[in-house]
Amino acid sequence: MGMQVTWTGAEATELRRALGVTQSKFSKITGVGVPTIKKWAQRGAWVTLSEDFARIMDTTLARATVEQRAQFAAAIGLGAQSPATSAAGAVWNNSHSADCVTATAELTRKDLTMDRRHATQAILGVTVGAGLLETMERWLFFDDAPRQVDKPMGLGMQEVEQLENVARSFRDWDDQFGGGLRRKAVVGQLAEVNEMLRERQPVRVEKRLWGVLAQLAETAATMSWDSGQQATAQQYYALAARAASHADDPAFCAFALAGMARQLLGLDGDAGAADALELVRIARDRGAGALTPMVEAMLHTREAWAMSKLERPSGFRRACEKAKERFADSQTATDPFWVHYFDAAELAGTIGGRLLDMSRRKPVFAGEAAEHIELAVQSRRPDRIRSAALDRLGLAEAHVIQGEVEEACRVGHDALDVVERTRSDRVRVKVGKLYKRTERAKGNLAIAELRDRIRPLVNAQE
Question: pTM here?
Answer without folding.
Answer: 0.78
